[in-house]
Design goal:
heterodimer, A: 373 residues, mainly beta, five-stranded antiparallel β-sheet, 28 strands, 10% helix, B: 348 residues, Immunoglobulin-like, 3 domains, four-stranded antiparallel β-sheet, 24 strands, 37% strand, elongated, disordered N terminus
Chain lengths: 373, 348
């Protein structure tokens, strides 16, 4: 009887050990350096999903990039069809306040669960992360969560002489995306007018050995200009990957991804100019009838749709002057009948989701099939 | 029949609303949570902003007969909230209005000069208190062309506005697509400001701070537009007025044009002959054309160097390394691209 008991205990211990080992082995490599605790996120200026339900959060106030384990990994093929009027009123209500006391700073869809996440700031800048479950809002806690983070050091190189301490410079994180093991982000400085684009390997390491690049564009082949990138996407053409960057001063510029290496002084190929008084907001890609396109939302223009093939076949840089008022030049694009689109993302393979200010001032969250894009 | 009567009786009992007395708990001015006595199931209890239908998100705690509700952001000051059990209001409470009545002020606008180059790149607006983070700043700033008597749009609207960390300093860019030479908007529309014209920038008192206090008054700034600045910042045009040893009298760095007010205060350092930073304070005067430095300790005799980071810009975005936009067809700029430039001076 004692032997039997001993065997049972040993078997039990063995099972516990095997279970523990297998648990350790199945822990994601990407999340291996995550810790549990309060993120102390001070602002959410941009959000974008990576693999395994990891949400990347750009925090301009803390000058920090966070990777948050949302644990939202239940796979769904199709997202919920949405048409939610007065969306800002609904979000404000969930925060116990009025629509004029909140600002939706970004929106992203988890590509696994197809759930829509939105980041919100209240009047005094308190950041909140919310998720839609169907049409129901849920809080995504930023406390007692699994996360990792990387402080973004001053991107302007300093020499050892400059020991004055903290910089007054702030970088408003303008766009971020995960691509092929790297988080890429661009930011605008509140001080000098310059362009810095970063590609940061993920999982984050303590060594900040990421590429910090100055990316230039040329105006009509003559004027080389420094300018910040506002929005970007990675597109693949002819089996080659390119960064498609949209500048605050209107040019749309292509850079081969293989050239994005630290210290490189890159000058991209301008493929279009998109009119004045306008800043790009979001860029996404999708396939329609098997053909790849990308679309871009803007502060002062309707959503623009570009055809990959046209970009791939557009060999010229812009050299000719165009005299028509505020006209865009270069590759042609289609202006979609979607104006005042504030945020835009892919919902699933066949739909996009977007937040739009309608003509009567209402803020509407809705989905749209890509076949109508 | 008896069952029917009992059902009605208990149903009537259930419908009787016993109002709860809610206590709002503050941390400073923030209404962090609310507590009340109840044995009801917290799954059926929801909080609402008065008259709204969206339940407030937050966490519940229930201990003995007390329920605590903590919203994910503090309750809004000056508002009334409802506590509902299922569909019935079982309690209401008010959150104290803001006690801070100090209206924020616009303490500075840079450049402070009233004459700016036609290719002015950016302006800074400095407030006495953190401003609200919800509405776009451009909803409260208008620009009027006084020469042509028309409202005009010169600033670029950005979704993520450029503020400093505590939200007291706003940076606005004049539309860079119109300033950059040869871009399509520049060719078609020209610069946002026109040489020889006068403009008025109007800042509305309808602008709230983060504590919902309005800006104390309307502000205006007049600017007169001079010719384009296409000259790179060059140290050989600058002079240093030195000081005497044994005093804490400031040294003056005299620049031949106004500098970017924010960059000027953070890009300059003074080093002594041992390559140690001289501690002290910088101040910009004379419409950002003079930078004065007052040392913390009296000057010692010797040679000092002034290290200036090359990112320092003038009002048109030209820095110590290059012009705002470089004409590749012109003779190559001989300036060596360095992180810093240096000047030296002696204290006798």
């Amino acid at each position: 009887m004692k032997k039997l008991l001993l065997i049972c205990v040993l078997c039990g211990l063995g099972l516990v050990t095997i279970s523990a080992i297998s648990k350790t082995e199945t822990k994601s490599i990407l999340k291996s350096n995550f810790t549990i605790g309060n993120t102390e996120i001070a602002s959410i200026n941009g959000i974008s999903f990576g693999p395994e339900g990891i949400l990347f959060i750009g925090d301009s106030k803390n000058a920090t990039l966070y990777a948050l384990d949302t644990k939202d990994t239940e796979k769904l093929e199709k997202g919920t069809t949405l048409n939610m009027a007065s969306f800002d009123t609904k979000v404000a209500g969930a925060l116990g306040t009025m629509a004029d006391q909140i600002k939706i700073t970004d929106m992203a869809v988890n590509p696994i669960s197809k759930k829509v996440y939105i980041s919100v700031h209240t009047n005094d800048g308190t950041p909140v992360l919310l998720r839609l479950n169907g049409e129901k809002l849920e809080n995504v806690s930023l406390k007692n969560v699994s996360y990792s983070k990387l402080a973004l050091s001053n991107p302007v190189a300093t020499d050892k002489k400059d020991r004055r301490g903290r910089s007054q410079r702030k970088w408003a994180i303008a766009d971020l995306k995960y691509h092929n093991g790297n988080v890429m982000l661009t930011g605008l400085s509140n001080k000098e007018f310059s362009s810095t684009f970063r590609s940061i390997p993920f999982p984050f390491t303590k060594a900040q050995d990421y590429a910090s690049l100055e990316i230039w564009h040329a105006a009509h082949g003559r004027f080389e200009t420094y300018a910040p990138i506002k929005a970007f996407d990675v597109i693949s053409m002819n089996n080659k990957e390119y960064l498609l960057a949209s500048y605050t001063c209107t040019p749309l510029v292509l850079f081969p991804m293989e050239d994005l290496k630290a210290g490189n002084h890159l000058k991209g190929r301008t493929v279009a100019e998109l009119g004045s008084g306008n800043a790009p907001i979001d860029m996404i890609s999708f396939k329609k009838d098997g053909k790849p396109y990308f679309v871009m939302s803007n502060t002062n223009r309707s959503v623009m749709r570009f055809d990959y093939d046209v970009i791939a076949n557009f060999k010229e840089t812009l050299t000719e002057s165009v005299d028509e008022f505020a006209v865009a030049t270069g590759i042609p694009y289609v202006s979609l009948p979607m104006v005042n689109v504030l945020h835009l993302d892919n919902l699933d393979a066949n739909n996009v989701v977007y937040l739009q200010r309608s003509a009567d001032g209402d803020l509407v969250l809705r989905t749209r099939p890509t076949k109508w894009m | 029949m008896v069952f029917f009567c009992f059902s009605i009786f208990f149903s009537c009992i259930e419908q009787k609303v016993v109002p709860v007395k809610a206590v709002v708990n503050y941390d400073g001015a923030d209404a962090l949570n609310v507590t009340f006595e109840s044995d009801k199931d917290i799954k059926d209890i929801h909080f609402f902003l008065q008259g709204k239908n969206e339940p407030i998100l937050g966490d519940f705690e229930q201990a003995h007969h007390t329920i605590l509700f903590r919203p994910i952001v503090p309750f809004t000051k000056g508002k009334t909230y409802e506590i509902k059990y299922r569909q019935e209001i079982i309690g209401m409470f008010d959150v104290e209005a803001s006690k801070t009545n100090d209206n924020p002020m616009l303490t500075a606008i840079f450049p402070s000069t009233d004459t700016v180059p036609e290719n002015l790149l950016k302006m800074y607006f400095v407030f006495s208190k953190p401003m609200q983070e919800v509405q776009n700043a451009l909803e409260f700033i208008e620009v009027y062309n006084l020469t042509d008597h028309v409202a005009t749009s010169i600033f670029l609207e950005l979704q993520n506005e450029l503020w400093n960390e505590d939200h007291t300093e706003l940076t606005l860019w004049l539309d860079p697509g119109r300033i950059k030479t040869d871009l399509v908007p520049n060719r078609n529309q020209g610069l946002p400001l026109e040489e020889g014209k006068e403009y008025e920038i109007r800042i509305s008192s309808k602008w709230y701070d983060a504590q919902n206090n309005l800006l104390d008054k309307n502000y205006t700034k007049h600017i007169y537009v001079s010719k384009k600045d296409r000259i790179q910042l060059a140290l050989d045009q600058w002079t240093v007025k030195t000081s005497k040893s044994g005093t804490r009298d400031p040294i003056f760095l005299n620049v031949n044009e106004p500098l970017d007010a924010m960059l000027a205060l953070e890009t300059v350092l003074i080093y002594d002959a041992n390559n140690s930073i001289v501690q002290g304070d910088f101040k910009l005067i004379d419409h950002e054309k003079r930078l004065l430095f007052t040392p913390s300790e009296p000057w010692k005799p010797g040679t000092y160097s002034i290290s200036i980071r090359s990112i320092l810009e003038d009002l048109a975005g030209n820095n110590l390394n290059h012009l705002f936009d470089v004409d590749l067809q012109q003779k190559k700029n001989n300036t060596e691209y360095t992180e810093h430039k240096e000047l030296s001076f002696k204290v006798l």
